Amino acid sequence: MIIKAVTAEADRVALEAESDADLINGKHYHNYYHFLFVIRDGQVREAKEYLDTKHVTDSFGDLLSTATAR
Fold first, then answer.
1. Where are the beta strands (DSSP E) in the chain?
2. CB-based contacts of 43: which residues, under 8 Å, 6+ apart?
3. 12, 43, 46, 62: least CB-packed within 10 angstroms?
4. CA distance 68 to 70
5. With the CA atoms of 29, 52, 57 and 30 taken in that order, what torsion angle do they form, in degrees rounded to the nearest 10?
6. What is the pLDDT of residue 42?
7. Cβ contact 4:18 at 8 Å
8. Do residues 17 and 7 lie in contact, with contact meaning Cβ atoms separated by under 8 Å?
9. Dihedral sign, CA of 50, 45, 3, 23?
């Protein structure tokens, strides 16, 4: 993952990231992410991740079905 931008305000940190990879099934995976962290007392108290889940399924779907069949 490549971090593109980070914004911090009060107890929240927002992070934009991008991934880019060639998969073993021959597909190319390129996705964008947004992470939101809530920090309190020096610890991560909440974490949320947003991404294109359909792209994940389209890219990794055949790999996941093979892994769960074992």
1. 2-9, 12-22, 28-40, 43-51
2. none
3. 43
4. 5
5. 0
6. 93
7. yes
8. no
9. negative
